[in-house]
Amino acid sequence: MIESTIVENTAKAINELYDAEVKIQDIGLQKTRKEFNGDFTIVVFPFIRYSKKTPQKTAEEIGDFIVSHDEIVEKYNVIKGFLNLTLKDKFWKKFFLDNKNNSAFGFTKHFDGKPYVIEYSSPNTNKPLHLGHIRNNLLGFSLAQVLTANGKKVEKVNLLNDRGIHICKSMLAWEMWGNNETPDSTGIKGDHLIGKYYVMFEKRNNEVVNKLVQRGLAQEEAEKESPLLLEAQRLLKKWENKDAKIVSLWKKMNAWAYEGFSDTYDRLGVSFDKFYHESDTYLIGKKLVQEGLEQGILFEKEDGSIWADLSNEGLDEKLLLRADGTSVYITQDLGTAQLRHDEYDPEQLIYVVGNEQIYHFEVLKIILKKLGRTWAGNIYHLSYGMVDLPEGRMKSREGKVVDADDLMDEMYNTAMAMTMELGKIDGFSGQEAEKLYRIVGLGALKYFILKVDPQKNMLFNPEESIDFNGNTGPFIQYTYARIQSVLRKAVEEFSYNPAGLINIDFSFIQKERDILRIIYEYPAIVQQAGETLSPALVANYVYDLVKEYNQFYHDFSILREEDHNTSIFRIELSVFTGMVIKSAMGLLGIEMPERM
Q: What is the three-state SS of 291-322?
């Protein structure tokens, strides 16, 4: 990388000019800001203590040294204490020729090491996936793509939360008020049908609680004494005791949910290497809890419940098993973590889970360490912010959610309306148009969500996301399609041969250099996204590239350029740009249209 050469020559300059030694890591090198001339900038201020001169003079002396000792640096300019270096055309020409046909540009070759296990999605089988799950799925899948691009071995896993009191609420509601209806008999997707009964339980239970409060019970007591809730708890106890009738109902309703989830995953374009079930892993968790109790690491209260004392860690006590022997949420996470360690021995076990569970994962790691699992330090919680709508937060229990399926329908319909209005399907067959609506609608949804830093809360506005201008998926997709149109016309009008030789024995204009400089940054962006676990870096990078290319496209001729060699170069620069756009969007799980 040219950066290391520049840094080394800077260190050499300081040594020879000022008889001082500086560490390579102490030399600040950054890309030159857009408003200034140059490719790379050195921050000179730290070196004036060696030169005993002004920042301007120090920068000039270091700049003169670098230009005279580095055959790649053409010239420099100084803005206050910042030394801006401009590279020679021969560097950019070599970079272009070496990489323009490299489909793996920006990616690191796979190395043999421990895998990175990424858990994402992890739905409850009592309701369909909603907008919050979409952010979770898109983050998890994109992160897997980014880590793979960084040469990591990745295992994508999904824990299906298929047991617990919430599942029993849906089961009880269906038993009481379902009249044996099924997805086939109603035409309702399985996960949506189960969600209907979860909402129904909560509504009926709230009515019961309100009546108890009216009779004089305190709110908290009424909630605990609700006959519906008590019956759901009895159902859970029967399930853990393997009651045949309850287990049969549980299997039937979960099968409905799994089929519904599978359809949604396929449509969303995410996948998994392995599925885990809480109904299996909670048993491993219970064994760990029993092990901790026998070793005196955990303790039992008078009612028979088992707890972890976390007071030495500045936290409170944590319930691990209820008095009736049934497990809680963290019980299965203990078991799942143990199971994945035994199966993969991962370099890192990454949980993609909302930021409301930060405390949960802190406790999980502490308890595992108390149980002697030194690998608990490899657990990383990638917490992400909540997704709100213009009208406010979603509430699953009240049925006030945006279902993932409904949202994808809306995105498809909006994409159809906007592409038709803008005339972007002229000459398309009906099947081609439908494919374009799907690609644009999903691209808008995915990009709008992934361009936001994972840790930030975000407001999702479907109409803003599908705009064909600005920092949106459709704008990037349209630019890519434009480049493919340029290539098709080049083949038709010039008999252009992508595999042919190219003559670039001429000077680049600044805008061509600007595009090449952004493309040059792609490998570093992919690496940084992997290190920080943030696909948002890739999303915003590709927007910057697209924005720069569109300015070039509007300001300069490509196919109508008088000089044939320049025209061929600009065609190939466009193709190179398109290749990087498609690569980056692929890391986000976004498909690109060949025309629109």
A: HHHHCCCCEECCCCCEEEECHHHCCCEEEEEC
